Amino acid sequence: MSADPFVDADLGVTGIAELATPVGRSAACGPDQGSLRVVRDAALACRDGRIVFAGEEREYRARVRVVPGGRELDAHGRTVLPGFVDAHTHLPFAGWREGEFAERLRGATYSEIAARGGGILSTVRATRAESLEGLRAKVRARLDDLAALGTTTVEAKSGYGLELEAELRQLEALREAAAGHPVDVVPTFLGAHTVPAERRADREGYLREVAGPMLAEVARRGLAEYADAFVDAHAFSVEEARRVLRAAREAGLAVRVHADQLADDGGAALAAELGAASADHLEFASDAGLAAMARSGTCGVLLPGASLFLMMQRRPPGRRLIAAGVPVVVATDFNPGTCPCESMSVAVQFACLTAGLAVDEAITAATLNAAASLGRAAVTGSLEPGKRADFVIHDFPNRYHLVYRFGMPRVWKVFARGREVGAP
Length: 424
Prior knowledge:
By secondary structure, the protein is of the alpha/beta class. The chain has helices at about 55-65, 100-105, 110-115, 120-130, 130-150, 165-180, 205-220, 240-250, 265-275, 285-295, 305-310, 320-325, 345-355, 360-365, 370-375, 400-405; strands at about 5-20, 35-45, 50-55, 65-80, 85, 150-155, 185-190, 225-230, 255-260, 280, 300, 330, 390-395, 410-415, 420.
C-alpha cells in the first residue's frame, strides 16, 4: 500500500503574492545574510502550530489537504514574512521620560541628564514604586502591542530595579504576563545596568551583590535565561562586567553585553571573550572587537532606533558588521528613555536607512539571526516545515515595501503558533 501523498493541515494561507524567508537553524553572516528564499504566488500550511508546507500555491493545491474544521485564508496578493523576533527590549518598567526628550531637543546630552539623576535612575525610581500587579499589567499590554505589530518572540530585560526585590519583581512580572500570551518571552537579568544612587559610595558592595545573591536568586527561581551588563563610562567597566557575567555563566545563565554604544569601551571584545550570545549597540566598536566577535560567533545587535532617537552623529555599523562576518541582528531597544518605540517594522526601516543594511539582510537580522541570538533558531525565525508557525501577512505586494514605504507598519494579520493573534 502506498503512503498517503497528502500533507494534512489545519490552517492554509493561499493567494500570497510573495513569501520571503531566510533558511536554516543558525545565524547567517557575510554574503549569506542577504540570501532569502523568495516564492512568488505562494501558499503556507500549518498543523498543530507547526509549519508543514511553504512553497508555490500550485504545489500546495496538489499536496496539502485542509482537515475538516480547518481554515483556509486568502491573503489576496499580500506578502508573508516570518514573525519578527525582537532581541533587545526593556519591557518591565514604569514611568516615561518625555521631559528628558524635550531637554535633549534643547541641547542637553544623555550624559548630562544621567549625571543629575535622570536617565536610567529616573526609571528605577518609578519602577521600584510600582507593584507586581501594576508591572504585570503594563508588560501584558506591551506584549499585546508587540503582537499587533508583528513581533512573535521578544527578549525582555530587568535592570530598572537595581536591588534584589525590585529586580525579582520585574522578572516575576515578565513571567506572569507571558503566561498564556501568544508572544514568546525570553527573560534577561540586567542587574548590572548601572549603580543605583544609594550605592554610589559602595560600588564594590553593589557589584558583589549583583554577582552573588541577586544572580543566585534569579537562577534559583528560574526567572531568566540570560544575564546582561552595560559596559559604559556611566555604568560598568570591562573588568566589572566580566566579574558579573562570569558569575552568571557559573549560575547557568547565558550572557549578553551592552557594548560600545557611546565610546569604544572594549565591550565587543569582552562579549567575544566570554562567548556571549550577543553584543548590542556597537556604534563605537573597534575593528579588532568586531573581528573577535566574528571568531566567537557572537551576534551583533543593531539598535538603530536608539541612535536616531539620541540624535547621535555616529551611525550603527551595519556594513562593518557584515564585512567582518558578524551575524547581524536588528532590534528595537524599546525603553522609556532612549527608544520608546515597539515597532520592529520601524527598526528594520531604520536599519536600512541609517545602518546601511539591504532589505533582505535586514529581514534576516529581524527574524532568523535574532532567533539565533536568543537560542531559538531551531524553533522560529524562518518559514520552514517543522518550525513554529510564527508569521505575518503584510499588506503590501513584496518585501521591499517593508522599507520602501517607511514610517508605518502595514501588518494585516499576525499568527503565533499557528493561531491568529487577536482573533476571537
